[in-house]
């Protein structure tokens, strides 16, 4: 119950992976070069067009590594004299990219629009720290779904703020692409927001697509600039053909381009699983963080001793869970994080819920004081 | 105190969870939802010991570290019990004497003056 396999594309099915095997035969296992030298394959360009079409933007660019997509591209976008306004609970790759860029970093409280507005107002009014000159660029960095909280970003409000204060928005949809939205297009579809409003859309193929790597999408000028100015684009080696094919096949399946209803079925199954699992856990009395739509379900355990005990008990009952403690979370808020998948059937979920009930009773984990329906 | 009383009252109305660490001092952890069928007292005590290990966090330690912690805690509690048994009545007696000095205090000084 802990893998990021949101749509079940990480399955070990020989039929589905036939095209991947073909590509490996044709192109080899690895590319051994950067995109700028001799590593640019036609499948890379096709995948970029496919990603752009999927997201509804002008153009996109893919990278071999998701972490590097963030950490190497943010320094290309902002530099000294710019301001980065980032959420409290951003991922390490975003923080690293921000620090490497040399821009000033200000942090606002998690998903708190008042805090963000105050920061933006103060930044626009006072300008750079000593010289009081206006900032060259203000970049707001948020994530689609935060992986430790399961909370979804408040996109419409951030876009309103961004337009009011003339800032740019960098949206990291690592967990939300493919997993939320009626057709899997991510948080922009969930909130019915036009993708053109988000300046830089970034995402990874690791979670919902069962592959590796990341992408950056947006206007054509932006992507063309990044192709020549980003460290990852120029120096890092390109995505290997097998992974490119896996992403292509997964994306075509989600979009329905391979002619079957499999993609839509998986997205609907994931949404159903999410709703069912969350409702049942809340009923039982566990404290759950996060939005009702997000497939990431953190169950709060609070005590460090219970973290270990929970993992052991669930393993004894043959369920593998991911428990998280300090320093990924605050030390008093240790949690067990469940990641739902479209490949989970109702029986699997029922079994897990039954065992959760037992373990919750054994370890006294049902902290919720809400009135329960039973 | 009031909160503790209402907590114990509400325990009959709906079965709340047991030992959230902030509320430990209100009542003993109750086996939640009546789902845990303890066949005998030994099982219940074993479960209580398990909860004690979890809450104090020594569940994660090696057995010898657990025994060290347990012996230190036990000796501290034993010393507290001994001290309270020996000294609390004496202190209470002295305090009462200080505040209400006609409470079996010194004999009246008129006797000393007369003799």
Task: Explain this structure.
The complex is a heterodimer of chains A (374) and B (115). With 374 residues, chain A is an alpha/beta fold. Helix content of chain A is 43%, strand content 14%. In chain A, the strands form two sheets. Chain A has a seven-stranded mixed beta sheet with strand order 1-7-6-5-4-2-3, sandwiched between helices. In chain A, strands 8-10-9 form a three-stranded antiparallel beta sheet, with helices on one face. Chain A is globular and about 60 Å long. Chain B has 115 residues and is mainly alpha-helical. Chain B is 62% helix and 0% strand. Chain B has helices at 2-13, 41-56, 63-99, 109-114. The interface between A and B is medium-sized, with 22 and 23 residues.
Quaternary assembly: heterodimer
What is the string of helix and strand elements of chain B? HHHH
The coarse overall form of chain A would be globular
Uncertain regions spanning at least 5 consecutive residues of chain A: none
Largest interface: A-B, 22 and 23 residues
Distance between the first and last residues' Cα of chain B: 55 Å
Protein name (chain A): Serine palmitoyltransferase 2
Domain Aminotransferase class I/classII large (chain A): 4-355
InterPro entries (chain A): Aminotrans_II_pyridoxalP_BS, Aminotransferase_I/II_large, AON_synthase_class-II, PyrdxlP-dep_Trfase, PyrdxlP-dep_Trfase_major, PyrdxlP-dep_Trfase_small
Organism (chain A): Characodon lateralis
């Amino acid at each position: 119950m802990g893998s990021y396999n949101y749509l079940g594309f990480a399955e070990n099915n020989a039929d589905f992976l036939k095209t991947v095997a073909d590509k490996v035969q044709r192109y080899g296992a690895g590319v051994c070069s950067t995109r700028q030298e001799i590593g640019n394959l036609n499948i890379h360009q096709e995948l970029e067009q496919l990603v752009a079409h999927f997201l509804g933007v002008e153009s996109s660019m893919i990278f071999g590594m998701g972490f590097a997509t963030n950490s190497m591209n943010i320094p290309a976008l902002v530099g000294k004299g710019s301001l980065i306004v980032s959420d409290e609970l951003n991922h390490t790759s975003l923080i690293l990219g921000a620090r490497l860029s040399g821009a000033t970093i200000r942090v606002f409280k998690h998903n708190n629009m008042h805090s963000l507005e105050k920061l933006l107002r103060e930044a626009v009014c006072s300008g750079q720290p000593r010289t009081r000159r206006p900032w060259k660029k203000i970049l707001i960095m948020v994530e689609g779904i935060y992986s430790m909280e399961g909370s979804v970003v408040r996109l419409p409000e951030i876009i309103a703020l961004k337009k009011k204060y003339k800032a740019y928005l960098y949206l990291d949809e690592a967990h939300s692409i493919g997993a939320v939205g009626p057709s899997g297009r991510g948080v922009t579809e969930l909130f019915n927001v036009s993708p053109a409003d988000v300046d830089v859309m970034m995402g990874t193929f690791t979670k919902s697509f069962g592959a590796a790597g990341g992408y950056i999408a947006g206007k054509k000028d932006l992507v063309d600039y990044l192709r020549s100015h980003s460290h990852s684009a120029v120096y890092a080696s390109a995505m290997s053909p097998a992974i490119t094919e896996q992403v292509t096949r997964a994306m075509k399946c989600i979009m329905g381009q391979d002619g079957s209803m499999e993609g839509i079925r998986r997205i609907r199954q994931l949404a159903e699983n999410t709703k069912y699992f969350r409702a049942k856990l809340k009923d039982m009395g566990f404290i759950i963080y996060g939005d009702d739509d997000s497939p990431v379900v953190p169950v709060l355990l609070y005590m460090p001793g219970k973290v270990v005990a929970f993992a052991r008990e669930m393993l004894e009952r043959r369920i593998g869970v991911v428990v998280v403690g300090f320093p990924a979370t605050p030390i008093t808020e240790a949690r067990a994080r469940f990641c739902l998948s479209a490949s989970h059937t109702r029986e699997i979920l029922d079994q897990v819920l039954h065992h959760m009930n037992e373990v919750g009773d054994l370890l006294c984990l049902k902290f919720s004081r809400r009135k329960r329906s039973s | 105190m009031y909160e503790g009383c209402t907590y114990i009252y509400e325990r009959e109305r709906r079965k709340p969870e047991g030992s959230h660490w902030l509320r430990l001092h209100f009542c003993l952890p109750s086996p939640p939802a009546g789902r845990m069928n303890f066949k005998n007292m030994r099982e219940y005590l074993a479960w209580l010991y398990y909860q004690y290990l979890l809450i104090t966090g020594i569940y994660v330690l090696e057995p010898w570290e657990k025994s060290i912690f347990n012996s230190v805690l036990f000796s501290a509690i034993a010393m507290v019990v001994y001290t309270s048994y020996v000294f609390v009545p004496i202190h209470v007696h002295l305090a009462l004497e200080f505040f209400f000095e006609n409470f079996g205090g010194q004999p009246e000084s008129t006797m000393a003056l007369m003799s």
